[in-house]
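Before we proceed, please read the two lines closing this message. Tell me what the token row says about the fold.
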Amino acid sequence: MLILLHNWYNIKMNKFIKINITKQICLANNLPLTVIAGPCVIESKKQVFALAKKLKDICLKEKINFIFKASYDKANRSSINSFRGPGLIEGLKILDEIKKELKIPVLTDVHCTHDVEKVAQVADIIQIPAFLCRQTDLVVECAKTGLPVNVKKGQFLAPEDMFQVVNKILKFNNKISLTERGASFGYRNLVVDYRSIEIMKQFGYPVIFDATHSVQKPGGLGSASGGDRQYVLPLAKAASAVGVSALFIEVHQNPDKALSDGANSVDLNMFKLMINQTKKIDKLIKGF
């Protein structure tokens, strides 16, 4: 009951809850835009280090906060033969080295409860995938770490339904962010309802827009997901115009050669353009 009253207070007071990721980076719906970016999955140590450094340099030049993201294991691939990544131990070792050597915070996703304890020793943010956002045991285990927990809204959920996910986390932790990544629109297609961002913002917690997964076509290539990356930029600009705490962007040096989610990932040139344009929109909107 207290948790429900807490959320109702945030809704009525239009309260902007701040989530500290590091001493320098804080997420809130009224603060300047943060960028969460990186490859879908760690393909190799060399590849992911090079990409992380380039993304950091771009964000430094644009004077925008940056969080690196990459998965150590993609447990929800379409085919059993799809590349999944280096696995928990090797993947976390690589992420830890990136975090320490490049001095950037890292985000990674978890798909099962027994990974959470080890992930919490490295990650600055733990992410719960959209397909698993209602998996209570996983949500609770992540919340118990005390780390910020980013939950992607399921493609199958109404934004109002994320209220219950928030309440699960609040029993153990109040460092919460919610991510919009599109809603199922028939078979193998997604559509973004921008009302979803505004509805979830009413809970008070930071809302993130996943610009690349929102153009995904789940299972669209038969043994893999397809996507329409040409729409990533306009959707990101629209989300920035609505107002979000952060943009989530999957980036690859050569998206057409990516081992996972290449069809909806962007290259470095597009990433630069996205950051430059969305930053300007964000500054304008949050200045009102």
